[in-house]
Amino acid sequence: MLQQLLQLIQKFWDPWIIFGFAAQFVFFLRFAVQWWVSEKKKESVIPVAFWYLSLVGTVMILAYSIRQKDIVFITASILNAMIYIRNLSLIHSKKKAEKIVVNPTDGKVDSTVIESSND
């Protein structure tokens, strides 16, 4: 029993195990950020940082899963990454559609969203 405990403790200091824990921590941070922003705004919000942390954490977990040869987590990480990339793509395409417009009557700057012609 003591021998098994010592082996477990030794595994903890393996660089890949530490990397795996770091990956899980980055992935967890996305929820901490989402919670913090939601509390600040007093409503449920999913900030852009949530999607970036999701993607970074998933890529780290993917690297760890490949090293550990875990097909379940490899598959899940690839599918998750596709969703996160798509959400970031949607966010950035919306930002590209935003234009700054100066109101000709009072000279104030207004931010408006220009609808694309293929919507």
From TrEMBL:
<dbReference type="InterPro" id="IPR011499">
    <property type="entry name" value="Lipid_A_biosynth_N"/>
</dbReference>
<feature type="transmembrane region" description="Helical">
    <location>
        <begin position="45"/>
        <end position="65"/>
    </location>
</feature>
<keyword id="KW-0472">Membrane</keyword>
<feature type="transmembrane region" description="Helical">
    <location>
        <begin position="12"/>
        <end position="33"/>
    </location>
</feature>
<dbReference type="Pfam" id="PF07578">
    <property type="entry name" value="LAB_N"/>
</dbReference>
<feature type="domain" description="Lipid A biosynthesis N-terminal">
    <location>
        <begin position="19"/>
        <end position="90"/>
    </location>
</feature>
<protein>
    <recommendedName>
        <fullName>Lipid A biosynthesis N-terminal domain-containing protein</fullName>
    </recommendedName>
</protein>
<dbReference type="GO" id="GO:0016020">
    <property type="term" value="C:membrane"/>
</dbReference>
<dbReference type="GO" id="GO:0009245">
    <property type="term" value="P:lipid A biosynthetic process"/>
</dbReference>
<dbReference type="GO" id="GO:0008915">
    <property type="term" value="F:lipid-A-disaccharide synthase activity"/>
</dbReference>
<feature type="transmembrane region" description="Helical">
    <location>
        <begin position="71"/>
        <end position="89"/>
    </location>
</feature>
<keyword id="KW-1133">Transmembrane helix</keyword>
<keyword id="KW-0812">Transmembrane</keyword>
